[in-house]
Specification:
Helices cover 39% and strands 17% of the residues. With 382 residues, it is α/β, with parallel strands linked by helices. It folds into two domains: 119 residues, no CATH class; 245 residues, Aminopeptidase. It has a seven-stranded mixed β-sheet, with helices on both faces. Helix 4 packs antiparallel against helix 5 and helix 5 crosses helix 8. The two termini are 25 Å apart. 49% of the residues are buried. Pfam families: Peptidase_C15. InterPro entries: Peptidase_C15-like (IPR016125), Peptidase_C15-like_sf (IPR036440). Belongs to the peptidase C15 family. This is Pyrrolidone-carboxylate peptidase. Keywords: Hydrolase, Protease, Signal, Thiol protease.
Amino acid sequence: MIKKFIIISLLLFSNLSIATSLDVEEARVKKAENALPKVAQRYNTFMESLTESVKNSTTESQISQSVADLSHRLWQQAVRDVQSGSNDDRPLYWSRLTMRRALKQLSPNFKMLPWQREVLLRSVETATRGLNDVSFSEDSQIKILLTGFDPFFLDRDISQSNPSGLAALALDGHKFNVHGKQAQIETVMIPVRFKDFDDGMIESILTPVYRDNLADMVFTVSMGRSDFDLERFPGRNRSANAPDNLNVYTGATKRVPKAPMLNGSTLNGNEFIEFTLPVAAMQAVKGKWKVNDNANISTLKKGEFIAESLYQLRDETSVTGSGGGYLSNEISYRALRLMHQYHSNIPVGHIHTPRVKGHDPMLEAAIVQQIKKMVISAAKAY
């Protein structure tokens, strides 16, 4: 028996336009097709099937089922390919955008209303991110949820990949034994878009996890610095003067940090939260890179320093958490904040991976293997 639950609502992804004009991410597809044809067009058979299905659809039900099925299959195919050794997260990212572009430009054999097209776009987002594919076996006694991110800063380098996304594809469904108990990892892929965070995407994913005890550990993963960093003190505020994948800037800077939003209101919470991962167990893993217990933060009053405790930070205003001032820090903060709201005490926290320039399959494979070892070591300490 498989225990399966859907951890995302169709109310999310409200940044997707009901218009048929392409957004910034979708408009990059053409550049990717020219610069990286083998990557961007790897799953062209899915695009061909989508085109045929849309053109032949005569009812809303028919096209909805076709899009949902193809989107789910795309996620599964990307998982299979990576687990067979491809070491590349980028084909999934670009194919998702290609599907969205096609749905904005193609017309079925019936009059499709704008809201119906919007539902199809949301269906693509949900299914191709694994968000309705989290399935734990009934005999899995330690359930682990791990999140990765899309590639980002693509206007700087269209070839950029993200080892955290590769890790999500590589580890989805992975099972292993811990002291006679079966552990299982399930994964999802997170967009690099501020509005999805502001609209409550992370809370929608994790609320059933904490509320219904659907997982025993939560790892959020993103690409970071030169080594592995376990981010001890995530901060509430944004401060990175950097765009998301829609080229949106929040206006936040290190001089003027800004709190994120949650469903139309300011995200309330402590300025800093402490993660709950088993640090010693994860640092004991041997690999190519060091694993740092990173407590380096900055505040408006004191500037940058290494924090020793939450008590030390009680009267401070966060500028950067140990995870920085961008979405990597924020996903960790939101995950921990929600955990405390539900009075959960499960291990939750963020892993920053070593940075990769462009795409380096050998280097990224080594990063994924070290992440895998760290997660297994943490599970053994659970």
